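Hi,

Apologies if this is the wrong queue. I'm a grad student, and the batch job for AraC-like ligand binding domain protein from Listeria grayi DSM 20601 produced an output file that my downstream script rejects. I'm not sure whether the problem is my script or the file. Here is the sequence I used:
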Amino acid sequence: MMQKRDGFKDEKHIVFPLDNQSELLAHLLIHGSYITEIGLYPSAQYHYRERFEGTPENILIYCIEGEGIIELLNKETIQLKNGEIFCIPAKTPHRYYTKGDHPWSILWIRFVSDITTNIGNVAKKKVKINLPAKKSLIQNHFIDLLDVSEKEHHLHHIIAASKLLELLLVEIYLLEDKVSYDKQNQYLTKCIRYMNENIEKELTLKDLTYQLNISQSYLGSIFKK
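Support response: The file is valid. Your script probably expects a header line. Output copied below for reference.
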């Protein structure tokens, strides 16, 4: 059977810099969450990856079309279909591949995060996104992450990606089949989108709080959570 690691039509694959990863993870606003790679593989015919020692990071895979198989070697097999998400824990031997008749389209992220540690066993199960509004919300978070990731990797872009990652993980694992209208999440999403739309400007905390009509101390407390 033909097998491909990558190289799919219209794919996106962005790698973040690794040379200062420990310094970035220690940054107050990044707060223990950091993306190392992110991508979109549409209609990934013959997609196949196998890693006998796993990866240093977690791998989050969101199937948006078709279906595929994830095998945690010597543990379990997960069938992933449209609207389903699974996170392969760091350092876990695994293989994953698309189903031949229905090749999957996937959004995926390799990342380090304290959130998965704090969530615990909740992050070790497959999540099915049923509500159309919830699917749209999750996909929009991924699109925002891809948009930020395609920019030059200046510190404020990396901070924006870190906060979007945290928001995405909370939406997936702590608010299953619910659409979050929490005020803090709304402020965070609006703030990150404003930063992304004005990426060439040297924005200050005052600029951001003016746009959101909240205090600087309140915005700072949201980013630290």
